Amino acid sequence: MYKGNLVFITRGSRSQVERNGGLKEMWKIKIIYKDNSSCTLTGSHKEIPLELAVNYFNKYVANHVIRSARYQQYPKKDYSEMDLLEKIEELWGEGGY
């Protein structure tokens, strides 16, 4: 199981980046469900580890009716937002699986 410096954030907690001194290397997953509720997950890694991405997908996306599940790596100017499943496929390919 993955162990690391992770933060679970829910709606309205945009100030997390500010509280951590303006982290420059981090990632964020934003999930919007069919009823328009949302969940945001963040981590202070440069890139989300594959095992963690799959774990979050299984826990918060699979078997739920969602509108979107987007992955964003920071700083935003260097990385484009992408679908969470696309990110998992990218990480899977990089790992040689």
Which descriptors apply to this entry?
single chain; 5 strands; 97 residues; disordered N terminus; 5-stranded antiparallel beta sheet; alpha+beta; 27% helix
Indicate the radius of gyration in whole angstroms.
13 Å
Ranges where pLDDT stays below 50 over 5 or more residues in a row are 1-20
The count of β-strands is 5
User: How many helices?
Assistant: 3
Question: What would you note in describing this structure?
Answer:
With 97 residues, the protein is of the alpha+beta class. The protein contains 3 helices and 5 strands; from the N terminus they run βαββαββα. It has a 5-stranded antiparallel sheet. β2 and β3 form a beta hairpin. α2 runs antiparallel to α3. The longest helix is centred in the middle third of the chain and has 11 residues. The chain is globular, with a radius of gyration of 13 Å. The N terminus is likely disordered.
